[in-house]
């Protein structure tokens, strides 16, 4: 185990002097939250710790081993004896146990000793956990009170993470990593690729692939159908392929990657390359930090081929019905204009959380004679040089589209109805993501798997606490920028609790802009701004606002966001099933657009829903990469007939 990262190392990683790092608020909490130190802050002494900094003091690594090893031995002893009280007594009162499928066949965080007791009471007999140990498989966790751990269950092997406080568990992460007897064919289990010797009627790899493509969906049925072959469907498809789950991905687009190609032409990924790897194949080291949309599209297309996915392009899913008697879906698809039926056991909707456009319904939209479209339909700025454009909305798409229109010589006005969070991309990369996903993180020994698990190890209930200082630091660092934006009339926020962008993403999937330049145009007035207003109506040639102004327009873009993914279920299955599964995404934080009660995990994502055999998959590239593993294992287990009793199936509190 390594020592906690000293402040001068952090300062060097961030290319700032230590004093500036401290001034910027790089306290132990932030370092811990971004994965640069392992010493967890104690929430009860949060304010006191706010002023504390890391030191160069070496950590007694033998003590680390001792504390964690002792805890693991005690925990295992209690579990082996089925002594739930003894096991629960090993947790602090305000503990969090996040389980990704290993114990619960679900994605669940239980809180407090009672939560631990309940979970163990309902899962222990089935799971039979054993062989808990510290693992160096993920590299060093560092610090005296935390460690990467491994364990086994009756059916699988798991990885996890443990943070101790006062000798008891404060946060515990347990994740299922593979299923015994169904390990992926990789490393020393990789396929040979040929059969040496003399084989009558030998089939080449290509012939086998062609035969599979001819038969699957026609002669044989896939076990799973994934509707939507964007980055989400593709990542999940790759995992299922490696696990030997016969799967067809259907997408109505002509080519894999078209979900990105079809977006406005100036779009580049907002997240940096280190955050974006797909499972199995990392981007090469010379890949751009921010991938242009057509380049990421080409990568997805290549990936689909080399990962040998059964990808049906130009295939639209029309409808799906579940038959409880046969435990089977009837999925009607139209492939190259021919209707056909698939009968999978499992149906995954990977149709995109940024896929179902929310269009407003303003008076006069039917009389407006200019061009008007949702941001997802926006073709780019070329046709609008010298034209007047009104962009309704003030989040990511609105900013990107406004900037591209301005660059092309259009006269652009942004309509901002309510406040938006803005973070400069550089600041976000350095202070928000840098510790886990950056070149310097790699240099410090971080791997993608370790970064993903580190991120996953922070319970959602605590995440905002650790995000607040990051955004305080960003606020301070970019104070001039924010002042200029506000002076231009832009309504700014940092989230209801100042926890910034990532929490907004998790809570509501909207309400922010990662600034890559458009904000300067807003601040200096090049992009005109009408803020705190609503659209009253459209006329033939203008947009009328609630402040009485009339804006002449040749183009209106509705950058008004996207609806909940269960809207796809309503369209493809039925409104009843959509209501039965309820809203997707959001944590129940009781903040704007994320009503309570508290859920603890993202609603319906990557885990069992109230509709048997229906699953939702999606999110950004990081989430698609990481959580596709757990969804794939859940599907594989079902295919193999491994019992998968679900603990804590979520209740539905909101319909959309
Ligand atoms: C402007 C913008 C910028 C973004 N920047 C980033 C970023 O930097 N990084 C990031 O990770 N994410 C980013 N996102 C979010 C991004 O949309 C999603 O992360 C990503 O596209 C989700 O992938 P997905 O596979 O879940 O859905 P999508 O990419 O939306 O794919 C869904 C697919 O489902 C298909 N489909 C839908 N209905 C059917 C049907 N009935 N039959 C057949 N096929 C169907 C569609 O054709 C589509 O290909 C951005 C989103 C937007 C709008």
Q: What is shown here, in short?
A:
The protein is an alpha/beta fold and 656 residues long. Helix 9 runs parallel beside helix 22 (621-639) and helix 20 runs antiparallel to helix 21. The longest helix has 20 residues, at 61-80.
Report the sheet with the most strands, covering strand number, pairing sense and barrel closure: 6 strands, mixed
At CATH level 2, the architecture of the domain at 205-356 and 564-639 is: 3-Layer(bba) Sandwich
Please count the helical segments. 22
Work out the helicity level: 25-40%
Multimerization status: single chain
How many beta-strand elements? 24
Distinct compounds present: flavin-adenine dinucleotide
* Structural class by secondary-structure content: alpha/beta
Give the radius of gyration: 26 Å
Overall form: globular
CATH class membership of the domain at 205-356 and 564-639: Alpha Beta
Beta-strand residue percentage: 15-25%
Low-confidence stretches: 1-61
Question: In the CATH hierarchy, what is the superfamily of the domain at 205-356 and 564-639?
Answer: FAD/NAD(P)-binding domain
Descriptive account of the structure:
The chain is globular. It has 656 residues and is an alpha/beta fold. Strands 2-1-6-5-4-3 form a six-stranded mixed β-sheet, with helices on both faces. The longest helix has 20 residues, at 61-80. The two termini are 46 Å apart. Helix 9 packs parallel to helix 22 and helix 16 (460-477) packs across helix 18 (500-508). Strand 11 (328-335) and strand 12 form a beta hairpin. Among the domains are: 205-356 and 564-639, FAD/NAD(P)-binding domain, CATH 3.50.50.60; 371-558, 3-Layer(bba) Sandwich (FAD/NAD(P)-binding domain). The protein is built from 22 helices and 24 strands. It is 33% helix and 20% strand. Residues 1-61 have low confidence and may be disordered. Bound molecules: flavin-adenine dinucleotide (FAD). Flavin-adenine dinucleotide binds at residues 227-233, 250-253, 259, 267, 269-271, 316-317, 350-352, 354-355, 396-397, 572, 618, 620-621.
